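Q: What would this chain look like folded?
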Amino acid sequence: MRRGFLSRLFVLPAIGPPAPVSPAKDKILIKSAWGSADPTQASFAFHHAKAFAEAGHPVQIFLLGEAVSLMRTAVASAIVPVGWPPLAEALAQVLEHRIPIHV
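A: My prediction, written as C-alpha cells:
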C-alpha cells in the first residue's frame, strides 16, 4: 500500500478504541489585565471562572495592571458588559464559589 504525504511526516495513531477519560479535573488559572475601559473584556475572567467552578474544576483568578481596580466596590458596580450580567453579580458568584482572586 502506498503511504500518503502526511503519513510520511507524522506517525499516525492506530485505529482502535478511544483512550479512557480520566475523572481528574484540570486546574484552571485565569489571568486578566483588562480594566474598566473595556467592561466586556474586564468581566470575562469572573464569568469564566464561575463556569469552570460549576463544572467542578479548581479555579484561580489572577488580576494584573488595570484589572486590579475591578476589586473596588464602586468600580465593580459600574461595570456592565455587553451580553453578560453585571460584574458585581459575577463577582458575588465567584466569592460564593470561594474562588481565590490574586491581585
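The beta strands are 28-32, 59-63, 101-102.
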